Amino acid sequence: MNWQFAKISKIITENYRTKTFQLIPHEPLIFQPGNHIDVRLTSETGYQTQRSYSISSHPEKKSFFEITVELIEDGEVSPYFFNEMIEEDKIEFRGPVGGPFKWTPQMGGPLLLLAGGSGIAPLRSMMKQNVHGNHNQKIPITIAYSCRTKRDMIYSYEIDQLSNFEYIKPHFFFTRENNQEDSNSRINEDFLKNTLKTIGPKIAYVCGSTQFVEAMCALLIKLEFPFEKIKTERFGPSS
Fold first, then answer.
1. Overall fold of domain 105-234
2. Quick one: which of 35, 150, 180, 208 is 20 to 30 A from 119 by CA?
């Protein structure tokens, strides 16, 4: 897989520590929701470092694609993106890269999407594909999005807009809102039990930190959701 360049056409500030970068590649990028790209930075001395970022945009938008970058203060790549990159700059990338964590309308549903923090990025691509994609049957999607506070939410306006479609059902969990924490501030067993019973999801996608993914998988397995129908993606802090 060859490295190539893409131009930054637009930078969207999602919250105080997260930005979405709209990128125009030399040739259209053909990808599926859930795929990611590798980004490589090269310093003036020749030192190189790279990180993987999920593609967060609608796959049928052929002229551009988007990645969403959360600032990790001691990271090597995200501070450069966040503090140095401007529109018209170019980035070096390769991809798309894919695995079992992907969804296409042909795979059907209903879907259960569980997102922790910036783990919402690839799930946004799935939701946008379902709503705006060129397919006849829309898939019921229930998404549970967990983050620390409302201030930490990503794509909050978009999710509000998507909730206008009757087949998209969002639920929000804030683990540190007002410096309080209780059993209802996290995606818990009771919520998942009721959701599984109500919607009968065909596939569950879980994306977030390793701790979040492992906790959600443990609950799903405890509730006897089939292991082979759980698709996971872990976002590490090394960005």
1. Rossmann fold (3.40.50)
2. 180
Helix axes 189-199, 210-222, angle to 10 degrees: 60
What are the pLDDT digits (tens) for 133-189?
877 789 999 999 999 999 999 998 898 888 889 999 999 999 987 655 545 689 999
Instruction: Specify the amino acid at residue 35.
Output: N
Kindly report the pTM of this predicted structure: 0.93
Its CATH class, for the domain covering 4-97, is mainly beta
* DSSP assignments along 95-118, one per residue: EEE--SS---GGG---EEEEEEGG
How far apart CA 37 and CA 67 sit, in angstroms, is 9
CA pair distance 128, 123, nearest whole angstrom: 9
> How do the domains of the chain map onto residue ranges?
4-97, 105-234
As a whole number of angstroms, the distance between CA 95 and CA 117 comes to 24
**149: its two tokens:** 């506070």
The whole-angstrom separation of Cα 160 and Cα 157 is 5
